[in-house]
Amino acid sequence: MHDERSVDFLMSLQPEQLDTIVSQLEIMATAKKAEKANSFAPPAPPSDVGRLADSLGLDLSGIMREINRK
User: Do residue 50 and residue 68 come from a single domain?
Assistant: First the structure.
């Protein structure tokens, strides 16, 4: 999993440089977690129109009766 060039590069860095990299990675990880927590993914819509309408608080009974008459 480790790329030999990456390991060689990291081994050549000073401890202060490694600390800076770690700090930047932690900031990026925290930002990514916050972004993911704040993102809204709507739930998958149900295949049943009636259940979908109920979940949205809509009353489609009149429309459904009209459709069933035809």
Answer: yes
